[in-house]
Design a protein that fits this description.
With 73 residues, the protein is mainly α. The chain contains 3 helices and no strands.
Length: 73
Amino acid sequence: MFYHTEVDERFGGRGLANILVEEALEASRVDGKRVVPVCPMVAAFIKNHPEFRDIADPVTPDILRWVQTLSNH
């Protein structure tokens, strides 16, 4: 699950977030894993790159609740 993606502001505007997401999705595919794009950046990337939709599962209310518990720890 990708629930947060961040690139330091010093490196902004260089497309590094897109590279990070694409590489992570490619690695997930190679490892036979599926992704749940909770992170808005990852969700937008998948929307704009339909070649990754085959490994993406929907974000459900249960998953959002689970992610909330992670951020509370």
